[in-house]
Structures are given as structure tokens and as C-alpha cells.
Amino acid sequence: MKKKVLIIENDQDIRELVTYILEAEGFNTMSTREPENLEQILLFGPNLILIDEFINNKPGHRLCHKIKQVSGLRDIPVIVLSTANDIELIATECQANGYIRKPFDGREIVDKVIGLVNDQSLSY
Q1: 124 domain-assigned
Q2: 4-aspartylphosphate-modified residues are where (predicted)?
Q3: Which of the chain's ends, N or C, has fewer CB atoms near its CB within 10 Å?
């Protein structure tokens, strides 16, 4: 069974690029600008979530923090994507399992996603 990655990204071009990269590596993806609610995430049942730090003018780390508080979601690895200089601090504070600084290299996305999907204890 293919591993599932949920991509929550404000920028359509980046959503499409990350979707292309991960699907080429054999992942099943779902991408959105912003999930309707946490139940939508539960229904997709991702093995990993990529979250943009800026979602429709709202901080993505708030969504990350909410995910980490919900039973059934808290054990799903989360990677925060951002151009912010303090992305490491942001990811730590929202209990993300890692971060990727934009602009990113496609190989970096693949390596982090594969690492976290295969080893839930891996971070940063």
C-alpha cells in the first residue's frame, strides 16, 4: 500500500511541485490550501503532513499545534515548510517532527519524507 502525504501549502505552484516530486517517488498525495477541519485530515489518513508556515494569512504552526493535540493525529509526523529565518524554532514550538526551509531542493523533501515515514522517531 502506498504511503500517504497530505500537503497543506498556500502557494499553488509549490503544492503542484511537491505533489509531483512525491508522487514520482511512489507516494499517494492530497494537497490543499487549507483543510476544512481536522476531520478531513483524519479521513485522508496521512502517514505524514507537510504544512506551509503561512496558510491564507494564518500561521501554519497553529494548525501543526492543533494536530499534535488531537488523538488519532498526534502521532502523524509533521514537517513545516517556510522561508522564515526562525523556522527551526517555529517547528520546535509546534512540536513538528522537522522543517524544510524554502526555497528547497526536491531531494531534501524526498529524503525527509521517506525518513519520517520509515522512522517515526527521526526529527530535524
Answers
A1: no
A2: 52
A3: N
Identify each DSSP E strand in the chain by its residue range: 4-8, 28-32, 48-52, 54-55, 58-59, 78-82, 98-101
Dihedral class, residue 56 (left if φ above 0, else alpha if ψ from -120 to 50, else beta): left
**Cβ distance 81 to 52 under 8 Å?**
yes
Q: Determine the 3-state secondary structure of 120 from DSSP.
A: coil
| Identity of residue 12 | Q
* Helix axis angle, 12-24 to 106-118, nearest 10°: 60
Boundaries of domain holding 12: 4-117
| pTM score | 0.92
